Amino acid sequence: MKSDTNMATLTDQQLERFAAALERVGGDTDMLVVLAAMAAEDAPPLLTKLESEVRDSDLRAAAHTAHALKGLLSAFETGQPIEGLQPLIDAAREGNQSEALRLLDSLQPKLESFIHQVKELQ
């Protein structure tokens, strides 16, 4: 776990970007860093798994994976791109592969960028 002195290296931009996340953890910067480390480890494989499941028409699994990814990342953001996962979850649950693919193609670069921002909190 990092100390508060290490957290001082967060940029003003990071502090502004993740102000709501910091508030959700009661201002505990150490906790935010721990959560960022977990997300940085778990989110990329979940996103890869989600892509495979949607492309392979395993939509039931895709809905589950997208929901897990949404839960993991919602500690850091409740707006876009995270809220964009809900329509993908809905499309997968409805068995609508073409819509799930369209949504995934639109969301994937935004999610990758967001995950990168979370990784930089470590």
TrEMBL record:
One Gene Ontology MF term: protein kinase activity
Protein name: HPt domain-containing protein
Coiled-coil residue windows: none
Domain HPt per the UniProt entry, residue ranges: 37-117
Gene Ontology biological process terms, A to Z: phosphorelay signal transduction system
UniProt xrefs under InterPro entries: HPT_dom_sf, Sig_transdc_His_kin_Hpt_dom
Top-level taxon of the source organism: Bacteria
